[in-house]
Design brief:
The chain has about 270 residues and is mainly alpha-helical. It folds into two domains: about 10-200, Tetratricopeptide repeat domain (Serine Threonine Protein Phosphatase 5, Tetratricopeptide repeat, Alpha Horseshoe); about 205-269, Serine Threonine Protein Phosphatase 5, Tetratricopeptide repeat. The chain is about 70% helix and about 0% strand. The protein has helices at about 10-15, 35-45, 50-65, 70-80, 85-100, 100-115, 120-130, 135-145, 150-165, 170-185, 190-200, 205-215, 220-235, 240-250, 255-265. Helix 4 runs antiparallel to helix 5 (about 85-100) and helix 10 packs antiparallel against helix 11 (about 190-200). The two termini are about 30 Å apart.
Length: about 270
């Protein structure tokens, strides 16, 4: 989509929930401060083996620490006994995607959709098809348009916009992202994707205008600040770029692209 790798689109759809539960009657106590986190989570899973939420928390723990091998192992253990769990197939797809295994990610998302074609699962699959320039993205989007679920039309337009953006038709992609924003002007991801298209067209000032709208709507939108930094850097405004990268890192200290961009820019300023 752009001259450098963007952060995964799919992750915003499939973020695994870390659910804090407290002990009250049949609830699970989780405030064991000072204990090793992995041991604590495994102990809870052993104590409540039927709790998928706790198993998800364990997966999320490994995911947060970048240990995709063990996150996938825990996910697969759930799927060995619950072979029709669409949510865990969706989680599996997210883990593979974030770990750079596109083929297995697509396979897992396809399985999730085949079990339960929820719009969020369809959006995950369609987004990945789009990013791999697979025309099936358009088929998925058309299927999504048939759904009566709220925001289905916007999701379908977003998938189509992604597809044309990755396929190189930035003008058509921008029109589709504009259609998303006409439905919901608060859609920060549509602003981001539109801005990336504008960036690729060397329209940096216009891209900044779109990104400013996004970070005004959601002031914790780290990707918005990162792309603002990219645009400011292209325009030769190093100070604004550095400030934007720093804002992105304040929100997400592990944002690798922002960290790398900031280090490179600070090294020459």
């Amino acid at each position: 989509m752009s001259v450098t790798m963007m952060r995964p689109v799919v992750y915003f759809i499939c973020i695994l929930s870390v659910i804090a539960t407290s002990c009250s009657n049949n609830e699970v106590k989780t405030d064991h401060t000072g204990e090793d986190e992995e041991s604590r989570l495994r102990s809870l899973v052993a104590q409540y083996p039927d709790s998928l939420l706790l198993k998800e928390n364990l997966v999320q723990y490994f995911r947060d620490n970048g240990d995709y091998t063990r996150a996938l192992k825990e996910t697969n253990q759930v799927l060995e006994t619950d072979t029709l769990n669409a949510r865990f197939f969706n989680i599996k797809g997210t883990l593979y995607f974030e770990n750079g295994d596109t083929a297995n990610a697509i396979s897992a998302f396809e399985k999730a959709v085949s079990i339960n074609p929820l719009p969020e699962y369809i959006l995950s699959l369609g987004s990945l098809y789009a990013q791999t320039k697979n025309p099936l993205a358009l088929t998925v989007a058309d299927e999504l348009l048939k759904s009566t679920v709220v925001d289905a039309q916007k999701k379908a337009l977003f998938i189509k916009g992604l597809y044309f953006s990755y396929a190189g038709d930035k003008i058509k992609a921008i029109a589709l992202f504009n259609a998303c924003l006409k439905i919901d002007y608060r859609d920060v991801l549509a602003y981001r994707e539109k801005a990336i298209c504008l960036y690729d067209l060397n329209k940096y000032a216009t891209a900044i205008d779109e990104l400013q709208k996004a970070v005004t709507i959601q002031n914790t939108f780290d990707e918005g600040y990162y792309w603002l930094g990219r645009c400011y850097e292209k325009m030769g405004n190093s100070k604004a770029a550095i400030d934007s990268y720093r804002l992105a890192l304040q929100i997400d200290p592990d944002y690798r692209e922002a960290k790398d961009a900031l280090q490179k820019l600070e090294a020459v300023n």
